[in-house]
Amino acid sequence: MLTTQQPIFRRFWHAVMPLSQLADGPQPFTLLGESIVLFLDEHGEPAALKDRCCHRTAKLSKGWCNKGRLQCGYHGWVYDRTGRVVEIPQYEEGRRILPDFKTPAYHCVARYGYAWVALEDPVADIPQIPEFEAPGWRTIFQFYERWETSPLRALENSFDNSHFSFVHRATFGVAAQPKPSKYELVENDTGFYAETVIDAANPPQYQRVSGVSDPITTRHMRNAYFQPFSRRLDIEYPGGVRHIIINCFTPVDDGSIQLCQWLFRNDTEEDCPAQLLIDFDEVITREDKDILESTDPDALVDVRRRGIEFSMDSDRPGMLIRKKLMALLAQHGEAEVHRGLPGVKIMLSREGAGPSCGAACDTGPTLTTTGATAEAA
């Protein structure tokens, strides 16, 4: 699937950039092949516009913020968060600026320390993360980096127990147990919930992370998929320590994503320092990154296309992700667009118009899980 060529993904919220990065002025980003610029408005809220001045097409990200408005670095035209030109320095005072002097603006809100963007009117809300700023939980912003892979590859990998003994053999994988534990899967309106228990290597350097001292421990894994490209992994260790990872695999173009990863822990800095947790997950994440960047980002979605990729029993979560994505495409009158179609090429950037910026979204589905399990049909 070529992600940028499926219009429905423009109608979802995507985690785009930590709000802390916007303190230094406007920042460029590519979302679904669309060049956008983000900045903070006069109320300190994030805003997103097309990264193109309507005067002579200069990138607005080359400009700066002026009292919560974005000023082009070429001729100084000033834009508000709706994309309208509100000031032209070369005009005499009081001269009317035509209403069609504007650049497209996109839906943009702040949530969980990030700016989130939807390129068109969203069809779903931003999932809730109840642990964010909740008593008894600490938030650790772990990773914000570009990977040369696709959202589907990253998603299916995050539910794939069969690679632990191989990709993660140097960290938590147990080489003597290559057969994966079985997930109990429960489908829901926003994706699905998957629960299992695995054995995990627990050498001395990882024991502050797990909170237990056994050389082999267990991880009670409550994994959840949220359409289109997000997941929540709630790992509970035997001593009660919970290690909750939130991933947004934000599509940049047809060959790359922006990995956005939060970590929530129910222990303290004294129990396990944040930097140790970052270092622990970074080693594991690098193992995933290395193998995923060797795969074809044009991942098969429509499994009726035979002979392209083959699957095994433990691929059930990845196949269910495909089922959910196919249903989403069909619901909105789309079919999978892939490289094998006549005249189709992978797009590494795409210019296009977007809607005016909308209001903040309502609260949405919760990135949390329950203890119930059932076998999916």
What does this structure look like?
With about 375 residues, the chain is α+β, with helices and mostly antiparallel strands. The chain folds into two domains: about 15-120, Rieske Iron-sulfur Protein (3-layer Sandwich); about 140-330, Naphthalene 1,2-dioxygenase Alpha Subunit, Chain A, domain 1. About 15% of the residues lie in helices and about 30% in strands. The protein is built from five helices and 17 strands. The strands form three sheets. Strands 11-17-16-15-14-13-12 form a seven-stranded antiparallel sheet. A six-stranded antiparallel sheet has the order 1-10-9-4-3-2, with no helix packed on it. Strands 5-6-7-8 form a four-stranded antiparallel sheet, with no helix packed on it. Strand 2 and strand 3 (about 35-40) form a beta hairpin. Helix 1 (about 150-160) packs across helix 5. It starts with 13 loop residues before the first strand and ends in a 46-residue tail after the last helix. The model is unreliable at about 350-365 and about 370-375 (pLDDT under 50).
How large is the count of helical segments?
Answer: 5
Residue-averaged pLDDT: 87
The structure class reads alpha+beta
What's the CATH class label of the largest domain?
Alpha Beta
Distance between the termini: 25 Å
Count of spatially separate domains: 2
- Biggest sheet strand line-up: 11-17-16-15-14-13-12
Helix content: 10-25%
Shape designation: globular
The poorly predicted ranges are: 350-364, 368-377
Approximately what portion of the residues adopt beta-strand conformation?
Answer: 25-35%
Taking the sheet with the most strands, its summary is:
7 strands, antiparallel
Q: How do the helices and strands follow one another from N- to C-terminus?
A: EEEEEEEEEEEHHEEHEEEEHH
The CATH architecture of the largest domain: Alpha-Beta Complex
CATH level-four homologous superfamily name of the largest domain: Naphthalene 1,2-dioxygenase Alpha Subunit, Chain A, domain 1
Task: Report the count of strand segments.
Answer: 17
> What radius of gyration results from the CA coordinates?
22 Å
Look up the CATH topology of the largest domain: Naphthalene 1,2-dioxygenase Alpha Subunit, Chain A, domain 1
